[in-house]
Amino acid sequence: MTTDHHITHIEVAPGFHPHERELAALLFWQAFRGKLGRIMWPEARALEFITSNLDPEFALAARDRNGNLLGMAGFKTAEGSLLGGGFSDLAASYGWVGALWRGPILELLERDIEDGVLLMDGIFVSKEARGRGVGTALLSAIVDTARHLRMSKVRLDVIDSNPRARALYERQGFVEISKEDVGLLRYLLHFRTSTRMQRALAS
């Protein structure tokens, strides 16, 4: 796929370069630290795990005209997801004891894929690039990716502590289809509900 998007000198293209891996991991952590911090802490080990397990095959990267990384969006299919890694990878970063309790909790946060539906697996933009249309460009590229893969819908989940992201998704045609209360996990995750949103794609 060679789909590129230009919005005020923003280009979105598949994957990320090897030299961008550490920055991509840092941006991912900054975006999701509020959600995952108590599970993935300490920060050094979280960054180690994320850096090792980001998969460029399931990433779309936004860059400025000078090639600087501004943000990324991930997606999940039956073949994999943006942040991969299994129990052994967790153990490599946190030790076996640390992996034993983190693994099941992270598994609870996983979202199942559906036939004909592309699952967006996270979107994050650097603080310096926010408000420049990067998120909109990445969402547009996710939709194009879904069409390229012959999917009929795009699905995502947004937490109640991130109203700004939900507003962006609504502007881009996503509608709420269900809401889930995380129950006692709220004490670990810093949010109470997760809303599933979906956008149907014209055939």
TrEMBL record:
Q: What span is annotated as the signal peptide, if there is one?
A: none
Superkingdom of the organism of origin: Bacteria
The residues covered by the N-acetyltransferase domain are 10-202
Keywords in alphabetical order: Acyltransferase, Transferase
Q: Name the CDD domains for this protein.
A: NAT_SF
What Pfam families does the annotation carry? Answer: Acetyltransf_1
State the name under which the record lists this protein. GNAT family N-acetyltransferase
